[in-house]
Amino acid sequence: MKGTHRFTKVAGWLTATIATGFSLSSGGSVLAQVKPRPTPVKLAQVAPSICPAQLGSAINRVLSRSAFSSGRVSVLVQTLGAGGDRTTLFSRNPNLLLIPASNNKLFTTAAALSRLGADYRIRTVVYGNSDQPNLETLRIIGQGDPSLTTGSLTGLAQQLTQKGIRQVNLLIGDDTYFQGPAINPYWDREDTLAGYGAAVNSLMLNQNGVGFSLVPRQVGQPLGIQWDDPTDAADWRVSNQSVTASASAAEYVDAIRDPNQSIIRVSGQLRVGSAAEPVAVSVANPGNYLVSKFRLVLGQRGIAIARSTLVKTTPAPPGEVELAAVESPPLTQLLTEANRESNNTYTEALLKTLGRLQNPATQNATDSGIAAVKAILAPLGVNPGGYTMVDGSGLADRNRANAAAFVQTLQVMAQQPTAQVFRDSLAVAGVNGTLKNRFRNTPAQGRFQGKTGTISGVVSLSGYLTPANYPPLTLSILVNSGSSAATVRSGVDEIVLLLTRLRSC
Questions:
Q1: Are 337 and 15 in contact (CB under 8 A)?
Q2: Which residues pair with 280 in a beta bridge?
Q3: Using CA atoms, how far apart are residues 213 and 444, in angstroms rounded to an integer?
Q4: β-pair partners for 152
């Protein structure tokens, strides 16, 4: 589908924003998660200053190019303010429903912040049938924490050791909190084999991805493989068709899991002497993956496990004793990973959390989450007819939204007590996240905070802009076009740069 297989290397896959894990993104979603090289903006085409009365014709000149005119666009630019204080500076089809890509994350994260609060944390708890050294059952109950890592499991094991637990007859992985499909049925199967399209369930570990780094060696040799978790190596066979290229060669990598076998296929090339490139593939059996790793970690800490199992529908019996627990970082940090790094897994976990809280008895946490987003945002002033969601992240091409709905979301969130939290979760132009390599050394650097979105045929950008000589703005630009993403993105960036030149006149 949407995730292109081969692309230019600019940045890596892993992030250290929250914990060791993968940044699984659809903001420029790719199998190896190498981010596209920013397309230079022709600054000469941007006027040194521009009056509001001139803005429409200037933007229309950009939109008249074939990359835009051959497709469909939805654009809205407004001054930032409450209700009647807003002024529309430009609009083109603001109510036209288009595929939004990762801009979809704005709806999910705005609803999550409004409903859960900035300090909300997701708990993972371990219960025993008693608190004695020898247990009949030990149950780890997940509530969909996307930040849970192997290190988190080590922390749980240490707590159990300190409680004197030494032997367990049955280790139970309780995967019942999120009901419904772990993999969104509207995602292309190919996407679900990559790390950015991993399953989202109650018991996630390392974002349900297996990560490793591709390391250049001598020219002509295959790239080396360095596993993030060395214990994963025994479970996989790597078909390595990659190569170390000369110092002047192009760089691209492709890593994908075989759908039927425990095989990871690697291809592409990196330059000799260049940095290692982190990649990831999805695990085939989420939940079971966590249980097996937890059993291993417990054994390393001297807690013997006779057998283990995973339950997906059977609720925990009453009377079990809490023995250990870990919490996710606060929602503030989860939102940053979701928006700034465009992390699909984090966003889908938040959507399902909303669904579970909206309807604890739901049989489909995703559907309930979508209903919750609408119910939360509509009273704030976001038109529910302005978007249709089938997922929280925007990876599916069945999502629809218009520029008006995104601007409404940005506007209403700016009026909330948590306005700064939401704004700070977005990427900053030329500084960090998915905008790190865009708008560098331009008037937009450090002045635009926004959400990117890219899947095949779609480029989107929405966010807040603070021009040097004009009041703050909100904007949303959605483009569905058959033209190259780089060409469309260059035009979108040019529009943003036009806005930075606004002055009152």
A1: yes
A2: 211
A3: 33
A4: none
What's the rounded Cα separation, in Å, for the pair 28 and 17?
19
Q: How far is residue 239 CA from its own chain's centroid?
A: 28
Q: Which residues pair with 77 in a beta bridge?
A: 90, 475
Assign domain 38-119+331-500 to a CATH class. Answer: alpha beta
The residue to which tokens 């019996």 are assigned = 317
Any idea where the domains of the chain sit in the sequence? 38-119+331-500, 123-175+287-327
Among 329, 349, 315, smallest CA distance to 127 is for 315
Facing residues of 72 across strands?
480
Could you check whether 38-119+331-500 and 123-175+287-327 share the same CATH topology?
A: no
Cβ contact 263:1 at 8 Å: no
Q: Three-state SS for 303?
A: coil
Contact predicate 471/446, CB 8 Å: no
Residue type at 414 in one-letter notation: A
Query: CA gyration radius for the chain?
Result: 24
Q: What is the pLDDT of residues 130-159, one digit of tens each?
A: 999 999 999 999 999 999 999 999 999 999
Contact present, 102 and 335 (Cβ < 8 Å): no
Whether the pLDDT of residue 18 is over 50: the answer is no
Task: State whether residue 465 is helix, strand or coil.
Answer: strand
The pTM score is 0.90
Per-residue confidence (pLDDT) for residue 365, from 0 to 100: 98
Helices (H) and strands (E) in the chain, counts: 12, 22
pLDDT-wise least confident of 286-300, 304-318, 429-443: 304-318
Q: What pLDDT, on the 0 to 100 scale, is given for residue 339?
A: 98
**Confidence bin at 17 (pLDDT 50/70/90):** very low
Strands 427-428 and 448-455: antiparallel
pLDDT in tens, 370-402: 999 999 999 999 999 999 999 999 999 999 999
Tens of pLDDT, residues 338-362 = 999 999 999 999 999 999 999 999 9
CATH architecture, range 123-175+287-327: 3-Layer(bba) Sandwich (3.50)
Which pLDDT score is estimated for 315?
80
pLDDT at 83: 78
- The two three-digit tokens of residue 187, written as one number: 């995602």
Residue recorded with tokens 């033209």: 483
Whether residue 389 contacts residue 399, with contact meaning beta carbons closer than 8 Å, is answered with yes
Distance CA 248, CA 232 (A): 33
**Closest listed residue to residue 200, CA positions, set 251, 150, 142:** 142
Does residue 67 carry a pLDDT above 80? yes
pLDDT at 316: 86
